[in-house]
Design goal:
Strand 10 and strand 11 form a beta hairpin. Helix 2 runs antiparallel to helix 3, helix 8 runs parallel beside helix 11 and helix 9 crosses helix 10. This protein folds into three domains: 196 residues, no CATH class; 71 residues; 146 residues, 2-Layer Sandwich (Heat Shock Protein 90), CATH 3.30.565.10. The longest helix has 67 residues. With 496 residues, the protein is of the alpha+beta class. Helix content is 57%, strand content 16%. The relative contact order is 0.06. The strands form four sheets. Strands 8-10-11-13-12 form a five-stranded mixed sheet. It is built from eleven helices and 13 strands.
């Protein structure tokens, strides 16, 4: 391109100079107007962004809080079922949905969750907790799905029980979060639901999706509080300008600091729990060490007295020392059994396919070698296997078969059987003997630690073995129970 003429170049330069002069004039003469426009634009953009962030924050906070609340409810129901219901049932306490009208009764876990949810709903205005299922009990008048969300929740959670089903929607005219999680069957629940006369479904298995727990949390109050805060922020920004923005920065900083403090508190609580567990382990070791050592000393010195001063002791003195030795040895065995029971509860599970028939045959062979004079026939079924921890299952079978061996000790000929059967399509294993048996009136006490139904002079033992069996079976998600008749033997059943 050729250069323009001098006249053209002069026009362009003149125009550029005028534009630059106008811009300088505008900046210097209209500074307040420009700053006002820029500030208002900044406020609008900031408020729009804050409004977007506040909505996201309300939803995110509601989602996180509701997820934590839902998990807490689930843990509470699990804890109530395992630590309250399972503990009181052996003592005859009735567990029922209409516990209010029955003296001395307590609610079933589902009713407990519903009532607890109503109580929380009264504290947190508008919050609602729902439990519903495809198979509600007849006494649950609103136990089925009520709307499309609940029907979709049942369908989604049945196929993907580990993933919550969540929607933000208007519920009864209020913007709300609906958070649904799967309610899965536990071992104790399976036994109850499959045997309850009013149960609409009786083939439940551990892990099945029983129904849905839904938390409905209105967001309008939180949104209103957020809007009010935005209006206050708008007036603050309008009156104080940059000070208002600085204040917003301080608020955000405080929020971050609070979040860091909460995380620190969670870490501290976790550390406290770990410390408590270590203290419990140290206490168990201390008890075993500090009690076992003096017991060994008492036993040793008693034996020394019997051996070194036998001629100086009369028959009564020797008998007293033998009793002292017997008591110390019994207490030592009791301490060992308690420690073994504690280890069973803490031991990490290693699941694999276990040959139960093979284990039973090995244990039977060991028992026969311990007393070759006894005439005991072991009837052990073939090819019984299950998935579980081989070490723990061996301990459980050793206790059950050892009990059968012990309580048939007064019979010249005895039979001990290990077998299996199907109960509602589920394998149920059993150990049966024809020995001393027990009175079924005391069946509820048989698995409690230290509970003995026979005198130690008749059959030895510490009363820990069956408690150990129960803990092992519970850790495998199963249940264990017993049937017996005095002098006609006993049968111990268990599932995995």
């Amino acid at each position: 391109m050729k250069n323009g003429t001098p006249a053209t170049d002069g026009v362009v330069l003149s125009l550029w100079a005028k534009m630059r002069a106008a811009a300088v004039h505008l900046i210097y003469e209209r500074t307040i107007a420009l700053l006002t426009v820029m500030f208002c634009g900044g406020v609008v953009v900031t408020l729009w962004h804050m409004s977007y962030l506040s909505s996201a924050l309300v939803e995110s906070g509601a989602l996180q809080g509701t997820a934590l609340y839902s998990a807490t409810l689930t843990e509470l129901r699990t804890f109530y079922n395992s630590q309250v219901v399972e503990r009181v049932r052996p003592y005859g306490v009735e567990v029922t949905h209409d516990y209010v009208v029955k003296h001395g009764a307590i609610p079933i876990p589902a009713t407990f969750s519903i009532e607890f949810g109503k109580h929380i709903g009264e504290k947190i205005r508008g919050m609602e907790i729902r439990l519903y299922s495809d198979f509600p009990f007849p006494f649950r008048k609103d136990g089925g799905a009520r709307d499309n969300f609940e029907r979709e929740a049942l369908a989604q959670l049945r196929s993907k029980p580990g993933k919550p089903f969540v929607q933000f929607e208007d519920f009864h005219g209020r913007p709300s979060l609906r958070y649904a999680t799967a309610v899965r069957m536990q071992a104790g629940c399976v036994a109850c639901h499959n045997t309850h006369p009013e149960s609409p479904k009786k083939d439940w298995k551990v892990g099945d999706v029983r129904g849905v727990q839904e938390i409905i949390r209105p967001l309008d109050s939180a949104a209103a509080e957020t809007r009010a805060g935005l209006q206050n922020t708008f007036f603050l920004l309008g009156s104080m300008g940059l000070l208002g923005l600085s204040g917003l920065g301080l608020v955000i900083g405080r929020m971050r600091k609070t979040s860091v403090e909460l995380e620190q508190r969670v870490a501290e609580r976790t550390a406290q729990l770990e410390s408590t567990n270590k203290e419990l382990e140290a206490f168990s070791y201390s008890v075993s060490h500090d009690l076992a050592a003096p017991l060994r000393s008492i036993d040793g010195f008693s034996q020394a007295l019997l051996e070194d001063y036998e001629e100086a002791l009369d028959a009564n003195g020797k008998d007293y020392l033998r009793r002292v030795r017997g008591a110390t040895q019994h207490m030592g065995q009791l301490i060992d059994d308690l420690l073994n029971l504690s280890r069973v509860s803490r031991r990490e599970m290693q699941r694999e396919r276990v040959d139960l028939s093979g284990l039973a045959r090995d244990i039977a062979a060991e028992l026969k070698r311990s007393d070759r004079a006894r005439q005991v026939n072991f009837a052990i079924g073939d090819e019984f296997s299950a998935v579980g921890d081989p070490g723990l299952l061996r301990i459980a079978l050793a206790n059950l078969l050892g009990n059968a061996w012990k309580f048939t000790g007064n019979k010249p000929r005895a039979t001990i059987e290990f077998g299996a059967m199907l109960d509602n399509g589920k394998p149920t294993y059993f150990v049966r003997d024809d020995g001393a048996g027990f009175d079924m009136a005391y069946a509820s006490k048989i698995f409690a630690p230290f509970q003995r139904l026979h005198a130690t002079t008749e059959f030895d033992g510490t009363g820990i073995g069956l408690a150990t069996v129960q803990r092992i079976i519970y850790r495998h998600g199963g249940r264990v129970w017993a049937e017996g008749e005095v002098e006609r033997g006993a049968t111990f059943y268990f599932t995995l």
